[in-house]
């Protein structure tokens, strides 16, 4: 017993029969809840899933297993339900006469233009197993890089989150108790304590408004970032941040250099390779520069001349290596060296970032906690001193 996705009963029967299955009975499944269909979270294929898929595909092809049998094997082994269904669709398309790259192109939600172009180049050159092995290596590098960067970025976010939780707990629970205690004794409160009590009263009285404004601001910012202007602003801001800007710039340079080098080595025309690289970079500022380079190439100009006009986004070493590659005909080789260099630099930056952020967070959080404690303890100390002198 199983399930198959199709637009009609006849198409479902045809899909099952193509897989060598005998259809005894077939019933329409109840529609999934609307909320499940609306959230892509429930239909997500991660970079790690695609990397594993590529590695297994390459291994089976190296063992001389036919493509259709390879897909059937991967369909049985896939843990991700959405990927499992898409593999079944790819197998049906290939059985229907489509090439592998064309079948993958019908699943663009999972497979990027870069992935599809590499597979197409493998079909033309006849070394499809090598292409999938290279794709697996490439995707594993991208996954490891993304994991390191997320780890470096999430560390300060989690620390600040826990501090905010503690601060809210103090404002909502501790400060009101302190306020009633001090007012009962009629103590003369220091300015810092008065400010903290005032903030606590305001926060307690207008807590709902604070939550509403925070949610509204977050929602508005999320919607703005989805617009072309908002995406451009956000992508431009990321590469100009004081500490993290260099990290983001190196990520984009690594993605651009490695993707373009791999595509050119696979025989993809430079115009198409530049367009695909612009999409892979996933930053509108860099994408705009890369597309300008593609336009320049169509006019017969050098890519390095366009890159040289943007030293803030592309350091001189990138332009120099690209220029040498264009003159010597070794663009793909030199671009891969650039990618290797910046990948190593990224490892150093991530390691140093964690070391640098830790003392900054400790000092900053220590100062804020010190202010909170001073606001709480100063009036108590003054009250105890007054009572002692009075006694």
Description:
Mean pLDDT is 81; it is low at 31-41. The protein has helices at residues 9-18, 34-38, 47-62, 67-77, 81-95, 100-105, 113-125, 128-185, 191-205, 207-226, 228-238, 245-265, 270-281, 284-298, 303-308, 316-328, 331-390. The radius of gyration is 29 Å and the shape is extended. Helix 8 packs parallel to helix 17 (331-390), helix 9 crosses helix 17 and helix 16 (316-328) runs antiparallel to helix 17. 79% of the residues lie in helices and 0% in strands. With 391 residues, the chain is mostly helical. It has a domain at 144-391: Type II secretion system (T2SS), domain F (Receptor-associated Protein, Up-down Bundle). The protein has 17 helices and no strands.
Task: Give the SSE layout.
Layout: H1 9-18, H2 34-38, H3 47-62, H4 67-77, H5 81-95, H6 100-105, H7 113-125, H8 128-185, H9 191-205, H10 207-226, H11 228-238, H12 245-265, H13 270-281, H14 284-298, H15 303-308, H16 316-328, H17 331-390
Question: What's this entry about, in short?
Answer:
By secondary structure, the chain is mostly helical. Helices cover 79% and strands 0% of the residues.
- Roughly how much helix do the residues carry, as a percent range? over 70%
CATH class category name of the domain at 144-391: Mainly Alpha
Give the total of beta strands: 0
Tell me the strand percentage band: under 5%
- Give the SSE order as H and E letters: HHHHHHHHHHHHHHHHH
> Mean pLDDT score, rounded?
81
Distance between the termini: 86 Å
The coarse silhouette is: extended
What structural class do the secondary elements suggest? mainly alpha
Largest beta sheet, briefly?
A: none
């Amino acid at each position: 017993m199983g399930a198959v996705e199709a637009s009609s009963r006849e198409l479902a029967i045809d899909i099952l029969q193509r897989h060598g299955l005998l259809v005894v009975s077939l019933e329409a499944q109840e529609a999934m809840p609307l909320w499940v269909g609306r959230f892509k979270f429930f239909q997500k294929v991660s970079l790690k899933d695609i990397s594993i898929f590529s590695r297994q595909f390459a291994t089976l092809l190296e063992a001389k297993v036919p493509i259709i049998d390879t897909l059937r094997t991967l369909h049985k082994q896939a843990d991700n339900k959405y990927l499992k269904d898409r593999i079944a669709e790819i197998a049906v398309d290939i059985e229907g006469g489509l090439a592998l790259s064309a079948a993958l192109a019908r699943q663009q939600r999972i497979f990027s233009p870069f992935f599809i172009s590499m597979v197409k180049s493998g079909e033309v050159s006849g070394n499809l197993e090598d292409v999938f092995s290279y794709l697996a290596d490439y995707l594993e590098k991208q996954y490891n890089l993304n994991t390191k960067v997320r780890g470096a970025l999430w560390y300060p976010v989690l620390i600040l989150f826990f501090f905010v939780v503690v601060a809210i707990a103090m404002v909502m629970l501790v400060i009101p108790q302190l306020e009633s205690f001090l007012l009962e004794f009629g103590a003369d409160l220091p300015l810092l304590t008065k400010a903290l009590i005032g903030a606590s009263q305001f926060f307690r009285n207008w807590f709902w408004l604070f939550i509403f404004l925070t949610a509204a601001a977050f929602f508005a910012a999320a919607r703005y970032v989805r617009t072309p202007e908002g995406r451009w602003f956000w992508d431009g801001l990321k590469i100009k941040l004081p500490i993290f800007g260099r990290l983001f710039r190196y990520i984009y340079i690594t993605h651009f250099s490695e993707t373009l080098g791999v595509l050119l080595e696979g025989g993809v025309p430079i115009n198409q390779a530049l367009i695909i690289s612009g999409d892979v970079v996933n930053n509108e500022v860099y994408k705009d520069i890369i597309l300008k380079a593609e336009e320049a190439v169509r006019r017969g100009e050098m890519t390095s001349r366009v890159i040289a006009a943007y030293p803030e986004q592309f350091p001189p070493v990138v332009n120099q290596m690209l220029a040498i590659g264009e003159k010597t005909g070794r663009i793909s080789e030199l671009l891969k060296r650039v990618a290797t260099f910046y990948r190593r630099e990224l490892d150093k930056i991530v390691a140093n970032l964690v070391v640098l952020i830790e003392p900054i967070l400790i000092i900053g959080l220590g100062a804020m906690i010190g202010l909170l404690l001073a606001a709480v303890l100063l009036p108590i100390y003054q009250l105890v001193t007054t009572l002692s002198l009075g006694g």
